[in-house]
Design brief:
Elements: H1 10-14, H2 19-25, H3 28-34, E1 56-59, E2 65-68, E3 72-73, E4 81-82, E5 90-95, E6 102-107, E7 113-118, E8 128-131, E9 136-139
Antiparallel strand pairs: 1-2, 1-9, 3-4, 4-8, 5-6, 6-7, 7-8
This protein binds zinc ion (ZN).
Amino acid sequence: MSDTNAPSTDADDLADLTDEEWRERLSEEEYRVLRESGTEARFSGEYVDHLPEDGEYRCAACDEVLFDAGTKYESGCGWPAFYAAEEDSVTTTLDTSHGMRRTEVRCASCDSHLGHVFDDGPEPTGKRFCINSVAMEYEE
Ligand SMILES: [Zn+2]
């Protein structure tokens, strides 16, 4: 029998996780950022000054690849910044919380909060994906 239709992806299961289950899977800080749209303190994250030649950054909640290390750059904003996300890896929505109009970035696979995207990034995209370190895991 073919197993091409087998439900294999973690992401499908993740969509059904309860808050309680997320709390068990994630650290307190990860839960606060990823599931409660929190923001880590400026310049506090482990990947702020992390500029590897290659590798990739994966979602800390579901392990999907989000950003290629080649798109990471030094923005000086205090959080890891990328000028592009991997294709179809993230979704964006308007966020009007805290009296600001920002574009929120979420993981397309598990709908966890990652950070925000701004229009002041470098070429070739002009985008600055400002992402919490705690929302990602770097892999060489
Ligand atoms: Zn995810």
